[in-house]
Amino acid sequence: MAAVQQLTEENVPKGPTKAGESVLKRRLVERLEESKRFSDLIRVTQISPRHFRVNYISPVASDNALMQTYRITKSQFLYVEDRAGELIIAAQTRR
Q1: Is the pTM value of this prediction over 0.90?
Q2: Which of 21, 37, 72, 90 has CB 3.0 to 4.6 Å from 79, enough for a Cys bridge?
Q3: What percent of the chain clears pLDDT 90, i.e. is strictly above it?
Q4: How buried is residue 54: exposed, middle or buried, by Cβ count under 10 Å (0-12/13-18/19+)?
Q5: Domain that residue 51 falls in
Q6: 53-81 pLDDT tens trace
Q7: Beta-carbon neighbour count of residue 52 at 10 Å?
Q8: Residue 16 lies in a domain
């Protein structure tokens, strides 16, 4: 007989998820989306369960381009933890 899992508001996914996407990554993306500029894109790659690479990508204006081109304007490595429901984000990028 199949097991039935009761879904609560906390464990229901808020949107479509990709295969292999963790809940921590989804929460990090939501947090970063709040602070980005309107025209920027954010690409988050999960390296390990708690380490992420984040690239901020901005469109570049070009008169003779056939397609929209983009440039990475900021790139950083982050260590992210979930402590008591709050995201703790620490930058791991060396300068």
Answers
A1: no
A2: 90
A3: 47
A4: buried
A5: 23-91
A6: 999 999 888 788 788 888 999 999 999 99
A7: 23
A8: no
Question: Strands of 51-60's sheet, edge to edge?
Answer: 41-46, 51-60, 69-83, 86-91
DSSP β-ladder status, 69-83 and 86-91: antiparallel
Per residue in 24-37, pLDDT (tens digit) is 999 999 999 998 88
Q: Which helix (H) or strand (E) holds 44?
A: strand 41-46
The amino acid occupying position 42 is I
What domain count does the chain have? 1
- Rounded to whole angstroms, the Cα distance separating 80 from 47 reads 11
Amino acid 60 reads: V
Report CA Rg, the chain. 17
Does residue 6 belong to any structural domain of this protein? no
Q: How far apart are CA 25 and CA 44, in angstroms?
A: 8
42 inside domain: yes
